[in-house]
What does this fold into?
Amino acid sequence: MALIVAKFGGTSLANPKRIKDVAGRLVAYHRQGNQVVAVVSAMGKSTDDLLKLARSLNEKPPARELDVLLSTGEQVSMSLLAMAIEARGVRAVSMTGRQAGIVTTQAFNRAQIAEIKADRLKRELKNNRIVIVAGFQGETKEGDITTLGRGGSDTSAVAIAAGIQADVCEIYTDVDGVYTADPRMVPRAKKLDQISFDEMLELAASGSGVLQMRSVEVARNYGVAIHCRSAFTKTPGTLVKEANTMEQAIISGIAYDTSEAKVTIRDVPDQVGIAASVFGAIAAKNINVDMIVQNISENGATDISFTCPVSELDRMRAVLDQQVRELGVREYLIDESIAKISLVGAGMKSHPGIAAKMFQVLAENNINIGMISTSAIRVSVVIEGAKTQLAMTQLHTAFGLDSDQVFTETQLTSEELAAKAEKGR
Ligand code: ADP
Ligand code: ASP
Ligand code: MG
It folds into this structure.
């Protein structure tokens, strides 16, 4: 008998037929003698719909109220799933984040789980019920509803698995597992049987939305192995776990991220303390910046460029307007039409020349590189957003990652790509 946490994403619960299928899977687990906790996302694209609804009334909805609204999506699916399970003759109980004891920080829209008080959840399991927890949501100590950022149900599942010491944490989604690249962007992407926490973390941080980055962090910190797999088949998926140092692929995957913008501050005086002032002011507002490049100084002035999430641009402009005045800087420019492309692989450490090959492939395809950054197991470049798919497919082929099989499911439409860039807002 095992204690299983199984998380189901929006597509896996998009309509009554799919909810029935998920119920069937959970009931089968239960009948095999396992204890089962399901963590659910909102049905289909209902979180996007709720966001649109909010924005139709207020362009910048108050963060607290937005969380009250968005948390309702998961409550719809949790109760429906409980009903579908009960219809099969097995007892089930659905729980909101609060009822499941998920205590979070105060940061509305991007709260972090601080603690899980799982007594009630464990009691329900002992009572032989299938427990269904609303993902993506929690509650602050003060009793306010919070959400964990887009894709946050993954993190709910992993944190609950850690909190109740589950034997397995399964993340069921609409593809067969983690691929070498988003299969909806690169049809020859290959499914990985396993990937290390560190590589998955870099891929998630670089834009691979298949697992929320925070969920991988929690999994690594608490040693929870994740099995990411399809909700529609029985095929085993991808195991995300501690590294097996014997088998390190040079490149495990390629990711893209269109949710960042490039900011360039022009003609900054080349003096001690200027970068400290600019980035100090940005940090004081808690805005994350990523790649930072300072050009060679000419005539005592230099340009500083960096990337930041498009969703933070309003707050960034407020900081920069003030800095421009204080430092006597000429102007700053913002380019929202960029993409970051990242190659990730633990084997890179022992294989020099990966970055050079990446730049060569991009050059051969007439793709200009705007910025570069690296970590021990990642090389990232900023390119023109319109060339994202060209860069992804060409790099995938050049690094020998192409599968013999072509992924036949739907490819991303240009509207979906635009929505991806929009999501961070
Ligand atoms: P869910 O609703 O189940 O959480 P998501 O849309 O959040 O599903 O994540 C699954 C999607 O992630 C896939 O449909 C795929 O388009 C995308 N994706 C991005 N990068 C990858 C990757 N490397 N491997 C697999 N899927 C990826
Ligand atoms: N429903 C939330 C979202 O769409 C959480 C999730 O799906 O993980 O982001
Ligand atoms: Mg997701």
In short: Residues 9-12, 41, 151, 173-175, 178-179, 181-184, 208-210, 253 surround adenosine-5'-diphosphate (ligand 1) (CB under 6 Å). The longest strand covers residues 260-269. The mean pLDDT is 94.
